[in-house]
Amino acid sequence: MNSKIVTDIVTQDENRIVEKKDLKKVFLRSIPMEFTWNYERQMHLGYCYALLPVLKKLYRGKDLADAMTRHMEFYNTTPHIITFPLGISAAQEEKCVEDPEHADKTTVSTVKTAMMGPIAGIGDSFFWGTLRILATGIGTSLALQGNILGPILYLLVFNVPHFILRYMGTFLGYNLGTSFLSKLEASGSMQLLTYGASIIGLMVAGSMTAEMVYMTLNIPVGIGETATDLQTILDGILPGIMPLALFGLVYWLLKKGVKPLPLTFILMGVGILGAAFGFLA
Amino acid sequence: MVVIQTLLIALLTLAARCHTMFGTSLINRPIVLGALTGLIVGDLQQGIIMGGTLELAFVGAVSIGAYIPPDMVSGTILGTAFAIAAGAGPETALALSYPIAAAYQAVSTLGTPLGLWLMHKCDRYAEEGDVKKFERGYWITGFVPKLIFLPIIPLAFYFGSDAVVSLLNRMPAFIQTGINIAGGLIPALGFAMLAQMIMNKKVVVFFFLGYFTVQYLGIATTGVAIFAVILAVVLVQIEQRLSARSNSQNAKDGGELDEF
Known about the structure:
Chain A is 72% helix and 1% strand. By secondary structure, chain A is mainly alpha-helical. Chain B is an all-alpha fold.
């Protein structure tokens, strides 16, 4: 794909609040996306940090604070093409300011959440599965002969396509966001988008919860021949019941107004106590 | 000479620890670190060969999703440096790297609570809309948990591996196990916060659909995402037809919508 085509649409329309230089900043600030990766919300800080140049331009005061908080939610996808959802979010936030009557701010969250899974699916298999393995094949075969080109080619084979795609993703995402969203708005289908995106978003969030939340009880039940353990029994009733119960409990506590920080440390404490007394595995 | 080498090893460790700052660009991989370690200790050629050997050994060690791989950074730097110092081959580097990587990983999990605490401070700066404090908090959250363990590798290089590995192994095992278990629990909080943002009565069932699709059918998120897109397209079309029927005058306008 020619990068001219990708960046053209932005430059055509001079009335936009978000300019090309802002999107370039988003690209640069997307580079340390995983620098603050954590167990709790993974890439959330990086996402907010990368989008800040756009948010700063669009909002002031309380609105800026709200926008920043909005982008501090859980996010995780392939870091190398994170600019694609970032571009779409930038376009949506811009729309919220240009056309506050029709824009729905929760759509920003649902759309970006809906994209986590599909992007990670394609991205992880392309970057980790294909490109890295290609780089490893070329790099190690030279390195094992003591050739300095081994490590050098290893980095180039991976990072040249990586940075090109990362750069283009910003504009591709933004253009898709603006053109797609204005088309939807014209047809009066914004509500349908929100509906469709929240279906995808919640299914992806549900499946990621099932994949990433682990809780295994280590409590023996019964003695002798019939001895088993509680986890096996629970799994027989409903697989994954413990992680789901934990999710439900945390959700309920948040609704009750318990702050996230104490919850983090309670969960950490439960993990350490569980290991110390052996009731969790 | 050893002091200069130790300082250079410290710099190399810092760069490798902060690889995520450079776009997750694989500069922390054994094939790169092995060559640079070789350069520092004075045998580039051996370093490249050892790096290549270790790269193949650690090829499966990538962080996808929430999986945290063994610490190949300490394993590669120290394994390569000691093997070259001993005049041994790549097999020695490989054999040395594993216990170091395991011992280091155990200790580095202790940085997790610190990182989480720092990160929650940024939540407050965001709520206040304070861009300056937020950006400063962002870099502190990134650097501090990495910096506190930075001296371990250079010290191990300076004093030799045995002394350091035995010291690292003194940490009670349940703490490391506990933090690893907590690593499975804490994402529940992240997803609960996300769900609060996007969940409403109309669509709440789809969360459970996604959850149990994975639990019962063992499909990965990619697969679920594909089905989710199909389902969303179908349901949006149904919704569209229903709303078109309810105001049949406008029925012809709303017909063409391409869902992504």
